[in-house]
Write a structure and sequence with these properties.
It contains 12 helices and 14 strands. By secondary structure, it is of the alpha/beta class.
Amino acid sequence: MSGEEFCTNLPKGSGLKVLLTGATGLVGGAILRQLAARGDDVRVMIRDTSPRNNLADMDPEIVFGDLNDRGSLDTACAGCEVLIHTAADYRLWAPDKEEMIRTNVQGSRNMMEAAGAAGISRIVYTSSVAALGFAGPWIEADETTPSEVDSKVGAYKKSKFLAEAEVLKMNAEEGLPVVIVNPSAPLGPGDIKPTPTGRLVVEAAKGKIPAYVNAGLNIVHVDDVATGHLLALEKGEDGQKYILGSENLTLKEILTMITQTAGKRPPIFQVPHGVALPVAYISELWAGLVTGKEPFTTVDGVKMSMKPMYFSSQKAITKLGYAPRPARDAIVDSVRWFAENGYLS
């Protein structure tokens, strides 16, 4: 079934049974809010240890499951017609990198297999721009930019590349009815963890980032990412990828917007990557030996910053009607949400 044909069968509030994974996270929580607002019948699959802040006031049907437990996925999929799969392990540092790769790669395959076995007729799979290719410093990449696993820095990027490749293979060889979306760096309400990008906002809004490296990111409002998922569900073409981003900004520009919003002084010193990298190695060593918590500065994060990652969302804009707001709106809403929820105290 093509995306166009499916769209005619999926008016807003159609009553189709939607299974949403990752609803306790930033992107999944934003999608849940929009599904609830339009009246869809939503089931969310969460782990029994997950915080439920992003489920408040929406009262979805809840089932417990784990991406590495196929039986729980079969139970979650039973009776559903649509799957939006956003659940993933999103960290730039982990004590056990193989666990992250296993969850993101084999876990995604497990979820897709369960959906296929349950007869789910439409799937939106949340990948990441991390899976896409590098067009060159400060040059916008798109869905066609060549990408390969050997070029990926860190376990997270490798896992997202391999997971996306697995999903595309299932589409090509098994006819899995899946559309892929590739969000950039989302910011906005509901970042309870927070995500690595959210941690950047928190620390900068506290005035704790006095310097920066020469890096670039594509920033997008999480509510626009959520809208992009629903547009992909209704209009996307099976087997196609759609970047869901907004504006390409330098790290200095991002930090300046954050600090201005929070009433703090923007950073004025640029640190060479060669200085930042040893600091990251020391931070990770301390985390591994003492704290056990993800350090703010990671080796993979510094290495990633050496390749400014800019992206174009033109395909989603043209094909899906995607219309992201300015990145400044995402930053302002993110700072406001963190302030209102006690992260900046």
